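Quick illustration, no need to memorize.
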Amino acid sequence: MPRSAEQHIANHSHPNLLYNSARVGYNSAPLHADPEQYSEALPPPGADPLSTVPAQSFCAETLIRFVCFAGWRCFFFCCYILSRAYACAPTFFERRNMTFESLGLHPLVLKALNDAGYTEPTPVQQQALPAAMAGRDLLVSSQTGSGKTAAFMLPSLHKLASAPAESAGKTPNQAAQSARSRGERPRFMPARPKMLVLTPTRELALQVTTATDKYGVHVRRVKAVSILGGMPYPKQMQLLARNPEILVATPGRLIDHMESGKIDFSALEILVLDEADRMLDMGFIDDIERIISKTPETRQTMLFSATLDGMVGNMARRITKDPQLIQIASAATRHENIQQRVHFVDDLSHKNRLLDHLLRDTNIDQAVVFTATKRDADTIADRLTIAGFAAAALHGDMHQGARNRTLNSLRRGQVRVLVATDVAARGIDVPGITHVFNYDLPKFPEDYVHRIGRTGRAGRNGIAVSLVNHAEGVHVKRIERFTKQPIPVDVIEGYEPKKAAAPARRPGWRPGDGRGGKPGKPAQRSFAKPGAAPRKEGSGYRSERGSRGDTRRG
């Protein structure tokens, strides 16, 4: 009796489904068909099933099944991608059309922003504001001039303004008067701030305080003060006696008041570390750790830094809890809105004449000239003043009052050229600065990025010019590697460098030699007065040294 198809498949079953499928496809006999009709097509029992299957039919069937299987996988993958894109599309368009009103800020804060003309948040504010308002810890890496101050101050002001008003007690002055009326000596009550902002420099602290006053101008019960080095001690005591809600300070001076019992952080709610990488570079790591140890564990911590690697990353992991990471740009961000160029100079006299020519450009609104030393900042500022420029110096040896007056004059437009050291590189925010000149290249490429970031603020365009000696070409290459972009070399007619390569160092060369004067003697700096012919090389420093006392500031 002929064998049925069912019996044949059972006798020749194989664990490989594709193997059996190829056999069944070759026989092409449906299971409900007449067994006698297809009995002659079945191989005998015990024989190898694939020995009777044509190779072409087996390969074609396998290929078709593989293509179908891969096609279904691709179809499901495309559906998944489309679904994710559809889910993310509202967030994308929402961020592009985001306004401060849509973030749900306090009405008093929104009123201050409208008065200041701010309508749309910057990219770093778009990501930081919602997370900070939700109480999350933040680790933010963003370039200078991107609106980081508002990124942590706006949600903090929103939180303080939204908090229920505390029971009105006696003010410090009222308590002091009551004590005097009872014949008692007034006791100083320590300040109990709710928000602490740590900054590396005095200029940056003043900038943060000024921005806080602008954003919180309508929030009457929130006071902000800054405690800095160089400020008179009685003035600091008066500020702390106001019991401010927001305290902006540098680490060194803050520790002095902590140890003397003038500040109590038991009620602190928000801790902000602005320019954390700079504070660590300046050696404040121990001071920061000591300050943080005095704050409550329930605080909200926000850390802003140009980079989150190395020591900064290690400290961030210790002081934050489940932070949200926001990386808008690294320290090596391409400043596409800043035109950068290099001018090579032969010696110091050539550099001075070229700087004098560049500063007479009518397109310059205000400019910052960066030097390597404090002495050079004073000397160049004096020479520029003699040459007819509205110039002033700014460096760390100046008294805090003098530094404040210089910055205020710069903001009011009374100072056109500011000659500064790197102490001001992270604390100047003046929209009128259109040009930055690197009289001396910085020691580290990171400082170069922060220097040129003084121009091109808030999306404006700027120009950064570096005056480089031929021997400093290696520093330019280092900066180009860090910023990942070439810096073009420019030449001005009449001020072309005569030297094509760095001169060989003579035996017995010492650092500081060969800067325009005779070996071992000071370099000469000269600038021409407006309308006067350029001075001869090497004629400015010695001939005008006698009048130095009339022009040098104290």
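The mean pLDDT is 77.
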